[in-house]
Amino acid sequence: MNGKLHPEAAELQKKLAIDEAGGNSNCDHGKTYLTPVTSLDMQVIDPQKDSEKPAVGNEEYTVYTRRWFILALFVFYSASNAFQWTQLVIITSILEKYYSVSTLHVYWTSMIYMVVYIPLILPASWLLDKKGLRLGVLLGSAGTCLGSWLKVFSTGPDQFWLTFLGQTVVAVSQIFILGIPAQLAATWFPPNQMSSATSIGVFGNQLGIALGFVLPALVVRDQEDLEQYGLIGGDLFRMFLAVAIFTSVLFLTIVFGFKDQPPTPSNRAQDMKQNSADESYLTSIKNLCLNPGYILLLTTYGMNVGVFYAISTLLNTTVVAHFKYEGVTEDAGRIGLVIVCCGMAGSMLCGIILDKTHSYKATTLTVYFFSFIGMIFYTFTFRFGHIEIVYFTSALLGFFMTGYLPLGFEFAAEITYPESEGTSSGLLNASAQVFGIFCTMFGEWLYRVTDDRIANSCLAGILLIGTVMTALIKPDYRRQKALNIEDKQITESKEVGSSYIA
Predict the structure, then answer these.
(1) Which positions ≥6 away from 289 have C-beta within 8 Å?
(2) DSSP secondary structure of 210-247
(3) Burial 443-461 (b: 16+ CB within 10 A, else e)
């Protein structure tokens, strides 16, 4: 035995490569040519060691180093939009004085994100599904940039309407953000990195929310003297201008650097979707609506994220009501930062766990249950009178509640394959906006007529119902089944080839 393949084995492997993967194809004016595959081509390429080499046959799909640049661009783009969601509501007490508006007016700068998302998500998902990632990202980045510049010119005491208009434009742009992480991960990344890539994509949104909690409270200083209110306008101008410049640079970078998809599919599931018959968008929506597991997930995801939206919107009011000292607004912002930063850690950890175990339901259910536990602790610690305890319980709540976000996307992608990840995650976010509006309005009303303890207890009850409903979801991992076909074919090919070794 000299370790070389017998001529018959080499010929058999050549036929297998052509039959199973279509060989190496080169297209020229609509014609397809099959290039013969030799035994040397059949070696498995490790994407970690050589991420730029083309893969051959069905043994390995090509992954490109550029995928990390694409993901990084999306993270910054998502963060620039999410920052503006919490940018104003975290300084509610300051804006009430400067613009002479009610608390509810300021709350609407946050809730407008939820309201506009609901009617626009279906056309946005259709655009992403039919036209690809690049066009959607370009439109979203352009809208975020435009809305940011509108707010630069809205810093007069009587120009809250222009601030709100700019906020609305930015809010509309988010329809091209929230549903993208799972679709981008499935398009650009191999199976063993999909969940981690989705978590990193969600990380951008969380990073923006975190910065939106802390930076405005540091930049826009509170003023007690009526004659000093003009200083608030100056601080707002500097904050709005910095954001506008950043979004402008980011938009230009996306124009020249963001690609729609890699030259070749990065995994078998994506390859099968690209080569399958193009299904109508309405048929895809119908399939999702007829999937009982997805309907349950659609509801439970909305409950969890809706409660998070309510907590984020009411955070400043709750903290300021319980703690009376100079700098309490900054502490409210830092508590929001703690919630989201711990959520980032939770997201990354959950992504790694999913990539290693593929236990989507068990992981989702565990995180959901502990979100409920964290909400219970968060609800009753404000009465202790120690801000340090609030920081700790907020960290616990954030780790699980915010960490749940990428789990929902990945779980949905698994149980709805081969439907578009953009469509399934887009509808999840639409559900989150509906529940976000309900939870925020309901919590704000309860806060006015009773107190924050009753309001937060009701929000905790919603999480408990969501936990029970999550337990009812059937773990039908369709995408994993499609990916496992490739592993089975690799094993069978190797076994056949090894039987002919001379």
Answers:
(1) 295
(2) HHHHHHHHHHS----SGGGHHHHHHHHHHHHHHHHHHH
(3) bbebbeeeebeebbebbbe
Q: Which of 61, 63, 64, 58 is nearest to 20 (CA)?
A: 58
Secondary structure of residue 384 in the 3-state scheme:
helix
Number of Cα atoms under 13 Å in the Cβ half of residue 336: 37
Spatial contact of 307 and 459, defined as CB atoms under 8 Å apart: yes
Distance separating alpha carbons of residues 501 and 179, to the nearest angstrom: 49
| φ, ψ at 339 (rounded to 5°) | -55, -50
pLDDT bin (cut points 50, 70, 90) of residue 41 is very low
Q: What angle do CA 128, 262, 19 make, to 5 degrees?
A: 110
Asked whether 293 and 473 are in contact (CB, 8 A), the reply is yes
Cis peptide before 418 (omega within 30 of 0): yes
Q: Which pair of tokens denotes residue 39?
A: 């035994």
Label residues 350-368 b or e (16+ Cβ within 10 Å = b): bbebbbeebebbebbbbbb
Q: Which residue has the higher pLDDT, 487 or 311?
A: 311
Tell me, what's the pLDDT at 255? 93
d(CA 252, CA 396) in angstroms, rounded, equals: 38
Greatest Cα-to-Cα distance within the chain, rounded to the nearest angstrom: 94
- Residues in CB range of 345: below 8 A, 6 or more apart: 399, 403
* The pLDDT value given to residue 407: 85
In sequence order, the 6+-apart residues with CB closer than 8 A to the CB of 302 are 428, 431, 432, 434, 435, 436
Contact between 288 and 416 (Cβ < 8 Å): yes
